[in-house]
Amino acid sequence: MIKKKWLIIIICAAMVLIQLAIFLAPPAFYDTYFNIFRPLAYIALLVFAYFAFGNNQRTYSGKATLTMVAVLGAILYVGFTFTAGLFTGFAKNAMETSWTGLLQNAWSYFLIIIIMEFLRSKIMTSVSKKWQYRMCFIVMAVFAFCSIDNLPNVIRFGLWQQVDYIFTALLPALVLNLWLSYSALNGGAISNLIFIGVYQAVALFLPILPDIPRILDAISLYCIVFIMFMVYDSIEWMAKRQSGIDVQYRGKRHWWVMIFPGAVLAICIMFGLGIFPVIPLAVASDSMKPKFSHGDVVYIVKTNPNDIKLGDIVQYTLGSISIVHRVVDIKYTPDGKRYFVTKGDNNPINDMWPVYDNQVVGKAVAQTPLIGWPALVFEDLKESK
C-alpha cells in the first residue's frame, strides 16, 4: 500500500502539472483548458483523494473556534474593503458579471476554490504528526502556485510590474494559503470555505467594487490573517488547557506581540489613504531646501484655505502633481476669487501659476528626514517601465 505522504506528493505534483498545462496551453486552446480541462481534472483529483485517504479526524480539533475566526475574518475583509471604498471611490468589476458571466465564474473559478479546499483538508488531516508542519508549508506553496493564473504574462513584464506583482499577488496568495493550510491541519475545511468563499465571491460576483489600490488590498489581507492567527491561537491555547491538554506557556502567543504589527500596518494603511487628518508625502525635489530635502517625508494637515497665512508651507495639486511650497503672497482676481502665490525656498523665482482654494490640500507641520526614499525609488521604477 502506498504511504499517505507519497499520495500527497502525487496529488500536489498533479496540481502543479495541471497549472503548468494552463500556462503552456496555446492561445487558441486556453479557454478550453481553463474552463473544461482544469475543472474536470480537479474533480478527478478530489475523487481520487476521497478514496485514497478515507475519513480522517484529528484527536483535538478546533472546528468551532476556526468557524468563528473565519466569520470574523470575512467580516473584517468586507468591512475594511468597502469602508476604504468610501474614500477611494467605486468602479465596475473587471470580471464579467452578467448572468452567463456569473455562471462561468462559478464553474471556472468558484468550483475550483471549493475543490481545492476539500483537497487541502484531505491532505492536511492525513499527514502524520511528524510531517504536519513541513507539509503545511509545502501545501501552502503548491496551492498558492495553483491559484495564480497570470504568472506567464508577468514574467514577460518589466521590473516594476514584477515587483508590483510580488507584493500585490504572490505574497498575498502565500499568506492566505498559509492560513488555510494551518486551518485545515486543525480540521477547518468548513471554516476555510466560509472565509475563502466570501473573500473570492466579492471579487468574482459583485458588479461594483471599491476602487482601492491592489497593494492596499494586499496589506489588508496580511493584517486580517495576522488577526485570525492571533485570535485562534489564543482561544485554542486556553481551550486546550481547560481540556487538560498539556500546553506549555511558551507555546501561547502573547497578545501584544501579535496585535502590534497588525495594528501598525492598519494605521499605516489609513494614514496613507488620508483617512486621518494628517497625510504623509515624500519630497521628490530640493526646491524647499534647507527646510525640506529630497527623500524627506513631510506631514500635511488638512487645512481650510481660509486659515492659510503668509509664510505657511502648503501642499497643492497641479494636475496629477503634488507640490509643497511656501505661500509668499495672497491675491485676488478682478472678480474677487482668491489665489495664493507660492515659491520654493530654494528656487530663484515664484511659481508661475496661481494656486486657488480648490487646489490646496493642507499645510505642512512636520517632517522626518530621509524615510521617503523607498517610495521615491519605487515611483522611479514605475515611471521607467
Description:
With 385 residues, the chain is of the alpha+beta class. Helix content is 57%, strand content 14%. It contains eleven helices and nine strands. The strands form two sheets. It has a seven-stranded antiparallel β-sheet. A two-stranded antiparallel ribbon has the order 1-2. It is elongated. About 2% of the residues have low confidence.
Q: Write down the secondary-structure element order.
A: HHHEHHHHHEHHEEEEEEEH
Query: Helix proportion of residues, in percent?
Result: 55-70%
User: Low-confidence stretches at least 5 residues in length (pLDDT < 50)?
Assistant: 249-255
Strand-residue proportion: 5-15%
**Tell me about the biggest sheet?**
7 strands, antiparallel
How many beta-strand elements? Answer: 9
Q: What general outline do the C-alpha atoms trace?
A: elongated
Structural class: alpha+beta
Q: How is the secondary structure organized here?
A:
Layout (H helix, E strand, L loop, with lengths): L3 H21 L5 H24 L9 H26 L1 E3 L6 H26 L7 H15 L4 H5 L3 H27 L3 H17 L2 E3 L3 H29 L12 H19 L4 E5 L14 E6 L10 E6 L2 E12 L5 E6 L11 E2 L3 E9 L4 H11 L2
Antiparallel strand pairs: 1-2, 3-4, 4-9, 5-6, 5-9, 6-7, 7-8
